User: Fold these one by one.
Assistant:
Number 1:
Amino acid sequence: SLEKYIPMPGGASFIWGHQKYVFESSAGSAYTTWFRTLNSHVLQIRGALGKPNILIIADPLAINHIMIRRIYQYREHLFCSLVIPFAPFLIDNVLQEHSEVSRPRIERLLGRSLGWVEGENEHKRMSQLVVHSFSWESVRSGAHNIYMAANTMLQKSNGCVTLDITKIMQQATLDAIGRYAFAHDFGGGRSDEANCILNSWRSMAEVAISLSGFYVGFTKEHVLMRTKDMQGLMLIRRVPILNRLPLRVIQSQGNVRRTIHAGIARELLIRNKDLLAQMSDEDVPEDLLFKLSKCIAGSETTAQALSYAIWELAKNPPVQDRLRAEVKTISPTFSFDQVQGSMPFLDAVTREILRLHPPTPYMERNAIEDDIIPLKYPLVDQGGKVHSEIRIHAGQTIVIPIHSVNRLTTSWGDGDVFRPDRWLEKDSLPLNEIVAGGWSSILTFSDGPRICTGYRLAIFEFKLFLAMIIDGFQFIDTGLKISDRYASTMNPVVVGEEKRGPQLPVTITLVD
Ligand code: HEM
């Protein structure tokens, strides 16, 4: 149990603890609000169905301790780390870094991957195999593939239409990753394989964000699926054996893996000689799967970041015009060096979008052993005693709310405001000692040894796509109210139309 001096918000339900409220709130916003109202960088919330209290940590020193200093003492649980299917022999290994909920899900979705791999040595060995493919050098030399994917997307859209940009972005980023990493053609993100992968993600997200399921679903199969998420995990958390039931919604998670296995991996085996050269014989099939699946998971998050960017620019016409004016100075050629080095405002917009709308809003960890976590911002108990560390026991669940950390008032001041200029102004950025770290002092790609492998690729892809789209198209706000729902990653929904699943409609016209 957690110490009493760790602040807890009021309003917990007897049955659902605070988790129902977190689930119903726009993703990330409940924690962000509580940190402010309780004036704390650490809090505890009540778990649902009698689950022990959960520790929510936004304190920079504590995050550094968990993500860097003691990373292998905390089990991992996050969508983006579903990647890199590997090493079946490790599945029953001792360390058990993944929680009882996420492990079976990860296996069904993408096989036994880097995200699945247990323990320090094995994780490092697997990471070495992929690190080169995602260096800046590799991204630069593969830039033309992303350019081609962006071009394919632009040729297919014209006129003035209101459309769901998330769908288009998902097709485009999947197409880009296919070209970049595997010389594989996903047909502009519209081939049968692409449809199978995108439909699998979508059907999972639809179930995951369904509100009605929260109440009635614990006896229904579609809700068992939805409970895969951290916020909705109540039943599977309490009864992990449910993961094994042959229910359609649970077992359909294997679609992505099957598509990759049956179609793309075999083709790659023939094409990708470099990759084969790096591997021992017994690694081959799973290693190829790993390459594909990590990229596919990453293409989804990149698509979400791009969708939020277009929506934010639609709501802020002066920022949109200023960005387009900068892009016009280099258009129509978009070389790697131009995109990375000649557009400071594009760079500022990129950082601001990734700060404000992190596609993975939470990371969850379980402590493998007892620990003492140091705090930058000490807590004071009712007797006035100052506590500059927290004691936790093995098994403690910890949430690192990336969304809240990226908006902390102590670090960012007006953290909820979309203001790209903060990245260009002297003295507007937080000092190193008060941020948790990570790329660009934000936690969007995590930090430490398990920082997102594909973050350079994601950043370049984001910039290139955005530059090319804004060069040719104008975005107009529909005025619809958008809320964010958590379904492994951030999913925008139209308020009042939640039943239609994730969508982000924006009106798009050709630039004069
Ligand atoms: C905007 C896009 C992306 C975001 C926001 C993102 C975010 C993240 C985060 C937060 C983690 C850490 C998970 C944890 O430790 O719990 C992660 C891990 C990972 N990501 Fe991404 N990611 C993105 C795109 C990509 C892309 C494009 C790829 C590959 C092509 C990729 C590959 C990976 C891999 C392999 C890991 C696991 C690293 C490890 O455990 O060593 N990601 N990502």
Number 2:
Amino acid sequence: MSSQPPLSTASDASPANTIVRVRGLHKAYGDFTAVDHIELDVPRGEVFGVLGPNGAGKTTTLRMITGLIAPDGGQITIDGHDLARDPVKARQVTGFIPDRPYVYDKLTAFEYLRFIGGLYSMKADRVARRIDELLTLFGLREWSDGLIESFSHGMKQRLVFCGALLPEPSVLVVDEPMVGLDPKGHRLIKSLFRELVADQKMSILLSTHTLEVAEEVCDRVVIINHGRIVARGSLGELRLESGQTDGSLEQVFLRITEETQAERDQAVAQRFGHEQGDPS
Ligand SMILES: Nc1ncnc2c1ncn2[C@@H]1O[C@H](COP(=O)(O)OP(=O)(O)OP(=O)(O)O)[C@@H](O)[C@H]1O
């Protein structure tokens, strides 16, 4: 018998221990449902991964959680703040790193980070201290006065990390953290995530294609396919559920997403067969 809770119910954490709570989240583009009544609880002080194949609905889910896309239905609560009723407070405790770095090319790294400090009404001395800490951590200190337009993609991505971390958010939402980073950047981000959680009590919600990243850094994950959560739990729990007790996350992932794809194909075939055989 499976040890998993029913997939329709989010039970990733107790209410008091939940930093991001999502209920019945739904988004459609015309007739196409991109996110189909998703429920999840991100526990405080953990790295929580959203995995899924291309087009599964990961980015749409994360963008709704950060308030960048309006949902068609459902409720999102961040650190006790309802995103629909209290968007400013909910966003103030959230840092977001999109999959593609959007930065103001005509600013220097320092100017960009000072601008972000202003958006969060941070005091000047705290901004200066945080800028220094973060540029050093991300190996950008000597580029502090360099124009962003001269930066490589990986440097811009690291600067976006600095910007998101500047105000010390309670929860960091990261869409595909490894895009555009070299192996050194990968290693930095993986150890940074664990440090942020262990030392700064931050919570991290990330989406990734890189299963090795999920395997190394995530405390638990949900797998999304066709806009729905098809599995949730720690890697150990997912292994049990998929019957791959000694498999890698890649094997578990393929098993679960292929199963659901096969189930859907079967459902379509049944409907198609029924319609074909329907005398009316
Ligand atoms: N603005 C939009 N208009 C129409 N369809 C959209 C829009 N944004 C996303 N979609 C569709 O919604 C589905 C989910 O997209 P989403 O970007 O959330 O998936 P994803 O899991 O992040 O995929 P990937 O891993 O490829 O980035 C896809 O089929 C996508 O084509």
